[in-house]
Write a structure and sequence with these properties.
By secondary structure, the protein is α/β, with parallel strands linked by helices. The protein has three domains: 13-114, Alpha-helical ferredoxin (Fumarate Reductase Iron-sulfur Protein, Chain B, domain 2, Orthogonal Bundle); 131-225 and 372-434, FAD/NAD(P)-binding domain; 240-366, FAD/NAD(P)-binding domain. The protein is built from 16 helices and 15 strands. The protein has a five-stranded parallel beta sheet, covered by helices on one side. Strands 5-12-6-7-8 form a five-stranded parallel beta sheet. The protein has a three-stranded antiparallel beta sheet with strand order 9-10-11, with no helix packed on it. Strand 10 (329-340) and strand 11 (348-360) form a beta hairpin. Helix 4 packs antiparallel against helix 5 (62-72). The longest helix has 19 residues, at 416-434. The termini are far apart.
Length: 438
C-alpha cells in the first residue's frame, strides 16, 4: 500500500473559503499610491502589486487578481504556499505595527493564483533572437524561462531529475506543498516554446564546451550540492539519515522509517522541516541539537516557535561527536559548547572539555547544510566563488565569464520568491547581452 501523503501531511495553511477571502481582503488598507509603494509590495522580492490584487479580490474580480499576481511572478501559486510571508510581505503589513494581525497575504495570493493557475497570459511569440540554455529546472530556472520566452528568446532547460521543480518538487515539506500547482504553472512555459531536457546532467568541461557551441548564453540555476558530511563515527548505522534523502523519500511517497525518538542535527529551516516531518511520521519525541544559541539559529523565528508549539524540544549549545550503536542507531553522544565572541564576526562555538551527554535516539537526521558547487569553477573558465557563493553582478546575474549567468541558491538565494527575483534580474541581463548591449 502506498503512503498517503495528503492524508498524513495536511496543509499547514489550507485555502480560505470564499467568505473568508472577502473578509480578509476587506482588512487591507490599500496602502501606497502614485508616489510610493505599499510596505508589503516593497517587501515582496518578486514585485507583486499586493494592494492591487487584494482590492480585485475584494471586488470579486478574481480574473484581474490572477492576472496581477502572474504578471510579476510565474510561480505565484507556489510562492503563495511556500513563501516566508511572516518575514516578508506580512511582516511589513501596517496592521502589524498597530497591534493587529497582518493581512493573510499568502493565502489571499493563493486564492488569486488558484483561480486559473494554468491561464498565465501567453503573448504572441516574437522573432526568436537568441539561444539560451538553462541548467536546472528549479524555481530560478523556471521563472527565468518564463521571462526570456516572453522576450522572444529560444530557451532550453536541462535537468538531471526526471521532472521539473527542483527544491519545490523534491525538498519542500509536504505540509507546505506537495506538487500542485507546480505542474500547472509549468504548462504555460511549454506553450511559450520552452523545451525541456530531463534526466540530463551537464557535468565536466567537455559537456559545457558542447553546450556553449549550441548556445548564445548559459544560465546556471543549479542550486547547491549534496548534504554536508559531518564525518562522525557511527554515521553508517541504520537510522542515520541525511536531510535531503529523508525529504525526497517522503515527497516520493516512500518515507524512511523513524523510531520513537528522533534527533535532528542543525539549526536552519530544513532542520525545522525534518523535525516536524519526523513528528508526523510517528516519532514520540523529537529533539533538535544545535551548536549555537537560539538567537544564532539561521531558521526563521516563526519556524522555531511553530516547532516548539508542536512539542519539539531544543538542545542549544550542543554538538554531536559520535553515533552510538552496533547495527542500529541507539543514541548520540554530544558535547556542550560555549560561544566565543569576536568583534565584527559571528560568534563561534567551542567545545567545553569533558562536558559530554548522551541522547537516546532511534533515528537521527543530519541537516547541517548543503555543499557549495565549487566544481563549476573547474569546468567553466572565469567562474569564481567567494564565501561559498558564486560571484555574479547583483544587477543582472552575469558571472565573470560573460557568457554565463547565474541565480538562486548558488549565488545565495534562500527562498522560492528570491529565486524569482534573481530570475527577473538575470532575464534582463541575458536579453541585453544577446542584443549586444553592455
Amino acid at each position: 500500500m502506498s503512503f498517503a501523503l495528503q492524508e498524513n501531511f495536511p496543509e499547514l495553511k489550507p485555502p480560505l473559503t470564499p467568505m473568508a477571502i472577502q473578509e480578509e481582503a476587506s482588512r487591507c488598507l490599500e496602502c501606497g499610491g502614485a508616489y510610493d509603494r505599499a510596505p508589503c509590495a516593497s517587501a515582496c522580492p518578486s514585485g507583486i502589486d499586493i494592494p492591487a490584487f487584494i482590492s480585485a479580490l475584494h471586488k470579486g474580480d478574481f480574473a484581474s487578481a490572477n492576472r496581477i499576481v502572474f504578471s510579476e511572478n510565474p510561480l505565484a501559486g507556489t510562492c503563495a504556499r511556500v513563501c516566508p510571508t511572516p518575514v516578508l510581505c506580512e511582516g511589513a503589513c501596517v496592521l502589524s505595527f498597530v497591534g493587529l494581525p497582518a493581512v493573510d497575504i499568502g493565502r489571499l495570493q493563493r486564492a488569486a493564483a488558484d483561480f486559473a493557475p494554468n491561464r498565465l497570459n501567453v503573448p504572441s511569440l516574437k522573432d526568436h533572437t537568441g539561444r539560451v540554455a538553462i541548467i536546472g529546472a528549479g524555481p530560478t530556472g523556471l521563472a527565468l524561462a518564463a521571462e526570456l520566452a516572453g522576450m522572444g528568446e529560444r530557451v532550453t532547460i536541462y535537468d538531471e531529475n526526471p521532472d521539473p521543480g527542483g527544491m519545490v518538487r523534491y525538498a519542500i515539506a509536504p505540509y507546505r506543498q506537495q506538487v500542485e500547482p507546480l505542474d500547472s504553472e509549468i504548462q504555460p512555459l511549454r506553450e511559450r516554446g520552452v523545451k525541456f531536457r530531463f534526466n540530463t546532467r551537464i557535468a565536466g568541461r567537455e559537456a559545457f564546451l558542447a553546450l556553449e557551441a549550441e548556445s548564445d548564453a548559459i544560465f546556471l540555476g543549479v542550486g547547491l550540492g549534496a548534504d554536508v558530511d559531518p564525518h562522525l563515527p557511527g554515521q553508517h548505522l541504520f537510522g542515520v539519515w541525511q536531510a535531503l534523502a529523508f525529504i525526497r523519500a517522503l515527497k516520493d511517497g516512500n518515507p524512511l522509517a523513524v523510531g520513537r525518538s528522533t534527533v535532528v542535527i542543525g539549526g536552519g529551516n530544513t532542520a525545522m522541516d525534518v523535525a516536524r516531518e519526523a513528528l508526523r511520521l510517528g516519532s514520540e519525541q523529537v529533539i533538535v541539537v544545535y551548536r549555537r544559541d537560539r538567537e544564532s539559529m539561521p531558521a526563521y523565528g516563526y519556524e522555531i516557535q511553530e516547532a516548539e508549539k508542536e512539542g519539539i524540544r531544543f538542545n542549544w549549545l550542543a554538538a554531536p561527536i559520535r553515533f552510538l550503536g552496533t547495527a542500529w542507531l541507539e543514541g548520540i553522544e554530544c558535547q556542550y559548547q560555549e560561544l566565543i565572541h569576536r568583534s565584527g564576526s559571528r560568534s563561534e562555538p567551542r567545545a567545553i572539555p569533558d562536558a559530554l551527554f548522551t541522547l537516546k535516539a532511534d533515528t537521527a537526521i543530519i541537516a547541517i547544510g548543503q555543499s557549495v558547487r565549487r566544481e563549476l569553477s573547474e569546468w567553466v573558465p572565469g567562474l569564481q566563488f567567494e564565501h561559498g557563493k558564486l560571484i555574479v553582478n547583483p544587477e543582472n546575474g552575469q558571472t565573470r565569464n560573460p557568457k554565463y549567468f547565474a541565480g538562486g541558491d548558488v549565488v545565495g538565494g534562500q527562498s522560492v520568491v528570491e529565486a524569482v527575483k534573481w530570475a527577473k534580474q538575470a532575464a534582463k541581463g541575458i536579453h541585453q547581452y544577446l542584443a549586444g548591449e553592455k
